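[agent] plan:
  1. take the single chain provided in the ticket
  2. run structure prediction with default settings
  3. attach structure tokens to the ticket
  4. add a short note for the reviewer (M.T.)
[agent] executing step 1
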Amino acid sequence: MKTKIFYSYSHQDETFRQELDKSLAILKHNEIIDEWHDRKIIAGQKWKGKILQELKSSEIIIFLVSPDFLSSPACKEEWDLAKELTQQHNKQLISIVVRPCSWKDFDDMADYLVLPTDGKEVSKWGSRDAAWLNVYEGIKQAISFYKENYQPKEEYIESITEIEFCSQDSKQIRLNEIFVFPFLEKETSNIDRNIIIGSSKKVFELGKALLVGDEQSGKSKLCVHLFLEAIEQGKKPILVDLQEVLHKKPKIKLINDIFDKQFSGDFDEWIKSDDKIIVLDNFINHRNANEYLDLIQEHFSKVFISLDSDTYESFYKDDKRLSEYEIINIRPFSLVKQEQLIRNWLKLRESETELYEGEIDLVENNINEIIIDNKILPRYPFFILSILQTHEAFMPKDIKITAYGHCYYALILANLIKAGVDKKDDAIGNSMKFCSHLASFMHSSGVNNSIDEESYNKFVAEYENRFILTKSLLNRVVSSKGLVKKNDDGFYKFNLQYSYYFFLGKYLAENYHGNKELVNDLVEKSYVSNNTFIIAFTIHHSSDMEIVDNILTHTMCALDELAPAKLDKHETDVLIELLKSIPGEIVSNKSVKEQRKEIRDAQDKALENNSNQKNSELENQESLGQIFLAHKNMEILSQILKNKYGQLEKNKVKELIEIICDAGLRLVKVLLFDKEQLKEYTDFIYKGIKESNKDIAEQDLVKGIKKELVVKMFLWTMGNIEKAVSSINKREVKELIFEIKEEKNTPAYDLIYYFYMLDSSLTFSEAKKKLLIEILGKYNSKDYFFMNKVLSIRTQYYFNTHSVKAILKQEISSLLGVEYKPG
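[agent] step 2 finished; step 3 output follows
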């Protein structure tokens, strides 16, 4: 491919330009270069526009420098423009000094290639032929360097690294500022042993791979990242977005055009190289797409293709052309990766405010409340960033994410606009109405988020009889990019699970009195996960306090035969022996970052284990009883508290908090036996085991049973206290929690308040130290060994996982009687 050269010169130096032409004649004859200068402008052409056009399309720009050049406004303008284009498109600038002049003092010309050697003026050479031969060799070398060095064009890099999210402090964010490498799994023949792919380097080692992921799983951003990483690693990649070129026939000329848009350098040399890579994004089932696949197979040995999960399963899973491709599945983020993304986002702030782990915890907890363990929203970067951006874009900085429903609404609105629905209120409103009625129809049909084609057509016909609905709007709402789509199996469903719950909750809230029995049934069976989500969204959309009161009543009735645990000496004596065996010092030598990663890894494993269990079958068995119901109702009440606290009167908010905490403490009482109960239960278990195995030694068996029971009691106690604390973890209700704590005046509520203060704070402050000293002073006798041990362990745990000022950490370590470890 020819290298295009642009000549910039003063017409006073026409002779030098002609001599340069002659010196480069052999390069033109060998079709190595194609030069342009303003003498080629045809009469009648708009010369300024033509010059600009040729400047932009040239790879090398040559300046014939002389006093006339340096004094010419037009020449200096071309110089400035060429420099600007060089920054964006990696053009090469070469100055040829033809006559003595002050070129070394002109702008930064001396920083670029200057010919002849050392800038000795052509006019001063003893032999002009020798001068031009020197220039010829310099230009030839520059062309060779340009062709063999594939430099990415800055303008293109900027275009692909822009992301659709904007933080409050940064108008435009670049991908590299927030990118976290996704959770990738390579499929193997052993389903239980899929291989985790943790870096772009590991991806490249595969040679050929399909990157398979759901909608919004981050496939395109992964493709951009792989492209950029390949450049960084010295490879020769090209990035093709199939959506942009699908209408064009797949030919090598098209690949050439894409290459020229992305890189400087010689395409003919690049296409012949062995280490080139093609990253093909947005692959779909289309005739042209399949022809692209054939073209790629012919020219590339390293290929990475992204495609939607449904497309892969329906059309390409058994495609023989893809038999040599590894399958890499894009999974939702782990909690470790989610925290890293939150950190990256918060670091974008222009302010020099220190980033505390407590701030990350607060944001993370609120995101987890919205995502709910991948059951409503998948934990993909898009949704995490959407939640963060919604918070920043619509709420003051000092208010943490509170309007969960608002976040879902923002996501749904963005989806509608992306699908082409007009932003006008009537189009959006009509879309919302259609979807809420469809969600209700799905639920009344006895299925969740899915109906067959016959049922869907029946629903649409009935809906059109009652309401005005244009075909164009329906086609936008029900499409691959809309809120509802038709799957390959012919069933219609909402694209994302949360939108189904959102719209069903909207319908029930707006038609509550006509659906009161249904809502009551959902509340009574809130132990079913789907019901929990439906109730939460119904409450979000509702202004009717009757629903909230209904939930409160059911939660109070759950385990109402048990009084809330107080965690006084009488209740906790049974745990003393166990607590004495637990090390009193858990301060770690590991860094805060290492500790937090270990904890989130453990949480990820717990979530994975839960998802692998067949909970859906268990949840639908009412025999699980009041315990499971109390747990689920605590989750619902937590959603009400965090979503509605600003809309409810303080007394109602206070009632909510008290019922949540009492429910948690009632759950504690379920397994918190006193010494007599523990003995009775131990004997009962022992007799059952002894009947089946009479050779077991009684003393060791009883001791083992008792120890196991006590461990379970302690874990159950602390687990339910922590659940109560996380359920009320809203900074804005601190004063109300304090009031309840003072009124109750029990060790249990003092623990809840202290844990809450730790979890809702940015860092450990003097106020927290004062609170801890106050509580320890209140329970300083031997009767409260449980309180002192638990307070110490929980505080040390906080220090292990949060950065704390050295002086405070040292003082608290001394107070707790543990070794101070800086870190």
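[agent] step 4 note for reviewer: The two ends are 60 Å apart (CA to CA).
[agent] ticket updated
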